[in-house]
## 1
Amino acid sequence: MIGLIDINTGNLASLVSALSKLNIKFKICKKRHDFESLNKFILPGVGAYDDFMKKLINLKFDKIIQKKISNNCSFLGICVGYQVLFNGSSEHGMHEGLNIIKGKFVNFIDENKNIKIPHVGWNECKLINKNELFYEIKDNSDFYFTHSYILKDFDKENIASKTNYIVDFVSAVNFKNVYGVQFHPEKSQLNGLKLLKNFNERC
Amino acid sequence: MLKKRIIITLTFLDGVLFRTKNFKPDYRYTKNFIDLWSIDELLLIDISKKKFSKNFLNTIKYFTENCFVPITVGGGIKKIQDADLYFKNGADKILLGTHDLEKSNMIEDISKKYGSQSIIQSIDCKKKSKNEYTVMTNSGNSNLENNVILYGKKALKQGAGEILINSIDNDGSLLGYDMQLVNLISRNLNSPLLALGGGGNWNHLLELFLKTNISAACTQNIFHFTEESILSAKKFLKQNNINIRH
């Protein structure tokens, strides 16, 4: 059973469809007590970083997530849900994240002024350090991205995949029991469904 | 490397799938025509008089539950509550029709709640003279302003993530995309751009990708995109060195 963390950002529908398609059992976690007895979670995320963090804090989900992760629960962050696992982001001023993995987010434009943002569309993931999330997924497979911020000041050993959009950036990480992907597996057809299946069965 | 996208565009009249010509319903289809596993992205537009009908919302749901690609929904969005309804039914992004940017906070409101990446702003363009285009609104019936670039810049500043360049003149013509219009806008805007209007065969897609800096080609003439042909179109583009997902 996967806990699907819902902080009321409006759109869980696509992830619900994907998990249903895979016959994966899940429970939507809207209140603190919904987290009880679960040990595997997905944190999907859309919208702005600061807004997303504020909602997590207001619901006191930040503490629960930190605790669940330190208690060795498996965790998958998607898009902004991936970004908040790190120390912070410079989106709309500097904002602090959940401080679970080392690194912070900066805009593509800080790397190269001529980059068109957001980075939207299908792009390849070059697999770096082997992990179970990408089990039987071919190197350089396509996934769907939509974002403007990328990870900096990270630990190399946590990188699961890299992607190139004018610059190389980290597109997936794995740190102990925690996984994070910048792309949207629930929008990435067969590759994405396979990745969600892997998270459920192998992570 | 980022792939060029082909966005299958479907227009619905009272829940029934139609093709349009010059912005009017023209030809009826069924959704079984579409190979859900070969597409990169979907754009669903309601062209009915009465918007937000149960029929259309169920259509969105059908696609959300059956294809795992990004889905953009448009038609009749005038305020954030309209967008809420589409997001709630499974839209990943919403398409905003050309509207008066000075008189509306809609883009700011939606981008605050769902993020810029969730907003595609359409610029409905009509050719005025050889090198001039105007921005049209009200289903292409009234002139809004004369500078297509300025309109695009304002929309991005308010928080739109992508711009759809919609050629009214080429809509449903099957004569190819308006390359001049696309280039005019892409030289001046720093965001992903989508082109709609005129795509009738694979060569039109190729021409668009070769001659412009476009991120995505939208095409609604799905007669050319039945099961075999989405794959064949992609193969054709790939053979011609277009970076496409296959």
## 2
Amino acid sequence: MEASSLTSYHLDILKEIGNIGAGNAATALAKLIDKKVDMKVPQVRIMGFSEISDVLGGAETPVVGVLLGIHGDISGYILFLLEEKAAHILVNLLMGKKADDEFEYNEISLSALKEVGNILTGSYLSSLSILTNLSIVSGVPDIAIDMAGAILSVPAIEFATTADVVLYIETEFAEGDKSVIGDFFLVPDSASYIKLLKTLGAMC
Amino acid sequence: MTENIIKVGMADLKHTLHPGILTTLGLGSCVGIALYDTKTKIIGLAHIMLPWSEQTKNNANKAKFADTGIELLIDNMVASGARKNSIVAKLAGGAQMFSFSSASDMLRVGERNVKATKEVLVKMHIPIISEDTGGNHGRTIEFYSTDGRLMIRTIGHGVNYI
């Protein structure tokens, strides 16, 4: 089965799951930084490889990526991507500093970023798990800070073995006048992908 | 002087006559295979994602794999007038972007991509004259037909010519 057999029904359900997941993520984020967090309706898209480098301002844009393995009824991994600027704002707010304060990478800020990624992807995965009735457990988060294209090659390669497209969920969080765009890439392995589509199909 | 800069995407390959520049942005675990015909200065660049085409069912796009990508790129270059016996290769990419202590086979694909690329080039008698592969950082590359130089740009690891 290829991604092309992902119908508009599947996509609608994934959008709804993305919506609920992002809502939970926004609530979790609001608790973390102790501020009201709004979010926009997430964009759920199936993208070709050629478009992937246009995500988050181009292939060379510095981004922070948090990758978690997933296992249970489906396996694969989930990648959470933030523009570097946005990551700095988030961590500053998390540390009780002002959004525009100076930022440096150290053990504490890296660990904070991993935790943000962990909590946000966790919110998304738990919505997916509850709605599909599939057991989904995430592993230990791993972090990389580099060019968007280079980090995105990781999910792109995984998808390349099953199809020529990538499943992509873009979420925009806002706190006051600061908005932060976070991208989720859900990358089930090929067997899990088929399982996920079947489960979603049964829900249509 | 405005030169002819051609962008090569992910799972894509292009070649050009001299003078020209080929570029690909943000190579992670993928490998950029830069081929240079020292006689005609025809250059070619492939941005491959996976090692072997026969290991994947979804293998219609030849530019996605080291084996079929290199073969197609050489064919295209030869069709444009390059001579196979004067083509040399330079490689970049094949990084492991995430450390993952329990790195699965798929997450170590960078290493496998580089290995497959080398095996294919050796089999086709194409000498590899330089490489900047492995590590854990992304690379943007530019390949110049004038002298076959390959520029590698990184975040935090500087700019390097091979």
